[in-house]
């Protein structure tokens, strides 16, 4: 940007209008005390938040402290819905099947460790699985089950976050890539294609694009990109009662299926290799799906921090600079928004968040 | 399956692309998802005009039969009806589904001739049975011999929907009128307008459908004409919201796209030989811009020629001569505005390419 005579000034600028950036914006705007701008290179749902199976998934998240964070987030969902509207959050209960006896040992250990943080897991026998989910393959050996897991409609979630935030006077700038970030005293200048914004506090919530945002200010943000391909069937009669690892049936009867994880950068092309593999896997889990027509597929780029755990909080040594990037953003969105808004406005959080600091990678 | 050129879509563009390439000894496979070749020509009962030189006066379905026969007896061409391209493998080979299994096809070049999608027109009640696209109504009447209703409105006044209005009239459907939001019509075929008048089918300008009502199917329509609302008893509404190129396969091939309103919206960028920004991927017919049937056929020839040339089956000089001929024919056949838009679309490809080289 050549002309910098007219930099708009904000208290807080959030880069990234996905499920994390928007949650932070919305929760922060509830206090109605700061001028907030959310800026995005494209529009909400064009990236990771719009290409997800949208589980709100808790019970297999380890270590148990991470499970606990996910638990808190899923417990915030009904409360969030009362504030922003119906995001079609459904606590269906979740099944994670296993197919060998060895896995039962692991399942029992998981149940034991998660119990300590209040996540109630039952380890089911084959018969119990089939009783709960009769269309499941009889080859199943058992499953872990928890009633806390569920799913949400990501499109409604994002829409209602933005609507509520706009009502609270949050500004949005879409289709506006950030091209540079400059530290100025205790604040930041955010250079974007459409202009320069001056802000006291800056939050990086760019998900898969975090690495690039970090590079503007000499920060290495240790995340990987993982492509997931998801198949969607035609609407089927009720077939699945629970959210199952890899498969869920949406309200309208469509079944969403996805297991794949590929490290191919930002490439969002679908490939038949993975599509066929995914379909075969689904049929081996739920044999009745062999008769279903797949009507479309999509793929999305997810962000995975190098150690798998969320990265959020203030960046040490960089005053007023914050980051929030993680896998499972849909699950964690309400809790991250809550904690980050506490941190940004008062410097304190109602839960300890030190273990999620980016400083652990140093 | 191992082939030189895979043609996706067995309509007029695909068939012409296959015939043209086969002319130069290219081994071609045509994949068509429906049970028969011929595409939209199969239900065109009217005489087509304009058509490429050398083709006499002929009705659409008769032309389809001739093309299908030529393709069937051509030793370089194999055809697969009831086969659908469903995706691409990592190694670039094409996945084709025949309802039982997925066939892996390795091809050197591909020509995408997947045609166009007709868009709906939205109004309250548009999902009621009895609301069809004009294309669907035409298939029912001319191909399946099913009369879709008795009292009809047509929504949209393209040449095609006027044609369909006349064909519905011919099978005894009372067409109350052609509903058009515009206030003045240009570029419609004079002959068809004359026939409309003859049959007492009015074009209702400055009008739109406010609502369709009925129990389980369309029974009544509220029409807004010049701001006045009136209710009509109608059991059929045929809508034409315009045509858009079908481009999903080009998206899988990562082709670059541009928006061109006159050519039907988003479509792949391409060069004078109808090759897209992705090497070896050619496009033909309405995929390369919405135009009339005669012009569609010539774009097929251009794509077939381009593929044959890039396979080394036609010397460059000879290809250039033929390409120039086809381009002048295309200019004669298609609407001036469309041809201008197409030329401009191709120039943009060339400039964007130079830009890439410069940086």
Automatic annotation (TrEMBL), chain A:
<protein>
    <submittedName>
        <fullName>Sarcosine oxidase subunit beta</fullName>
    </submittedName>
</protein>
<dbReference type="GO" id="GO:0005737">
    <property type="term" value="C:cytoplasm"/>
</dbReference>
<dbReference type="InterPro" id="IPR036188">
    <property type="entry name" value="FAD/NAD-bd_sf"/>
</dbReference>
<dbReference type="Pfam" id="PF01266">
    <property type="entry name" value="DAO"/>
</dbReference>
<dbReference type="InterPro" id="IPR006076">
    <property type="entry name" value="FAD-dep_OxRdtase"/>
</dbReference>
<feature type="domain" description="FAD dependent oxidoreductase">
    <location>
        <begin position="11"/>
        <end position="343"/>
    </location>
</feature>
From TrEMBL, chain B:
<protein>
    <submittedName>
        <fullName>Sarcosine oxidase subunit alpha</fullName>
    </submittedName>
</protein>
<dbReference type="InterPro" id="IPR036188">
    <property type="entry name" value="FAD/NAD-bd_sf"/>
</dbReference>
<dbReference type="InterPro" id="IPR051691">
    <property type="entry name" value="Metab_Enz_Cyan_OpOx_G3PDH"/>
</dbReference>
<dbReference type="GO" id="GO:0016491">
    <property type="term" value="F:oxidoreductase activity"/>
</dbReference>
<dbReference type="InterPro" id="IPR023753">
    <property type="entry name" value="FAD/NAD-binding_dom"/>
</dbReference>
<feature type="domain" description="FAD/NAD(P)-binding">
    <location>
        <begin position="4"/>
        <end position="288"/>
    </location>
</feature>
<keyword id="KW-0560">Oxidoreductase</keyword>
<dbReference type="Pfam" id="PF07992">
    <property type="entry name" value="Pyr_redox_2"/>
</dbReference>
